[in-house]
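Protein data sheet
==================
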Amino acid sequence: MAIGRSWRTSVSALLLCGLWTAASALAQNLLPNPGFNTSISGWAPNYSGEIALAWNGLDARGSSGSGSLQITNTTPVDNFGFNVFGICVAVTAGQSYHEGASFRLPGGQAQGGLFALTTQFYSSSDCTTGYLSSADSPVLEPATDAWQRLDTQPFVAPLGTVAAFALIGFRKVGDGGTVLGNVDEVVFEPSGANLCFSSDDQLCLGARFSVTTTWTSASGAGSGHALALTPDTGTFWFFAPSNLEMMVKTLDGCALNGRKWVFQGGLTNVRVDATVTDLQTGGSKTYTNPIDTAFAPVQDTSAFATCP
């Protein structure tokens, strides 16, 4: 799959193999009007192609005083490509950045939709010449009528970079027809000390811990969908966004026993394999709840000997 500057022409071949905190975004976000509170001011389609942008009253956080950007994609032929739009921002070579957004695919549509993010680096200040490289998110195929988060992991602006194009891609799956999608809480910011950013299937806790889950039942299997609750705590759903299955948190117990702790609890009897990885050291631990067994609490106060 590829994201291009129009649905017909790809500027760069992109290999597409994705909850940021509001405080961080407000402090460092380089994008104008990222929450679309009252309008889509500052945002417009960058390239010719069959997409249109408009303001919509649906908000990722359910706020009645805000909204989102709605994308209408009428691309006549799928061609496995993404229509894209974005904003060019000034960046610093050698600095680490990350891009993210929340997406929603309304239900009841004849066509499906996919979302993706990419950042393109340029040696020109207007992102028109001097393309250097790109960093991409996974592709998100969201559950309908549910907001889901997609983020790139931290990436470093290469030598010679002056500006970056923070791009949002939306693909209509199948020929003909029209598909609508919503985007909110868009962020492009320096990643700072964060080693991880939460995505649909990855929960990031304490800036350095990544948590992923898989589930297995008598009728199927899949990956858990992550939702961040606080900087150190999050939850996963497996079958529907309204049906939460487990909660996990990491705690700093260094002052007590020289360890980072992992606690988990669940409301399920399917098999769950939860893998917690310390991205600072590369160490990981997997906790398994057997199938047809009530989820047993985990209170691992010796999880990671990686203090501080």
Observations:
- The chain has two helices and 21 strands.
- The helical segments are 22-28, 254-257.
